[in-house]
Structures are given as C-alpha cells and as structure tokens.
Amino acid sequence: MQKKLPFYEFTLLPDSEQFSLVFLDGEFKNSREVGNRIYCLYQLYDFLVEIEYDICENKIAGKVAFQPKV
Fold this sequence. Notes:
Layout: H1 7-12, H2 15-25, E1 27-34, E2 37-44, E3 47-54, E4 59-66
Antiparallel strand pairs: 1-2, 2-3, 3-4
C-alpha cells in the first residue's frame, strides 16, 4: 500500500479513482455469491470496501465503503 488516505477523503473521490485505489492498493478479504451477484470485500487502509459484481451483465453494479466497528 502506498500513502494512507482517510476514509472521508476516499469517499469524496470520483468513482473511477476509488475503484483504482481499491484494485491497486486494496487487499482482497472475502467474497460471497447471492443470486446473480458476487460481493467482494477489500481492506483499504483502515476501512473496508465492498464491490458488487453483476454476473449476468459481467460488470460492477455497486460499491459501498465503510469503517468497521472496533
């Protein structure tokens, strides 16, 4: 991972930059399949990002960033 980016600053970035950071600097943690969707969880710095993939459309359907409770 490169420099640490605070959660709030990450959420202010355009989606394209958020996806780039997740795929380049994020650490894949887990995935689950629900219907025709796959949800992949990534650790990025000190927060998590879940990417939702649409299997039928073969594209990203959504993204949620959140901070885990400690």
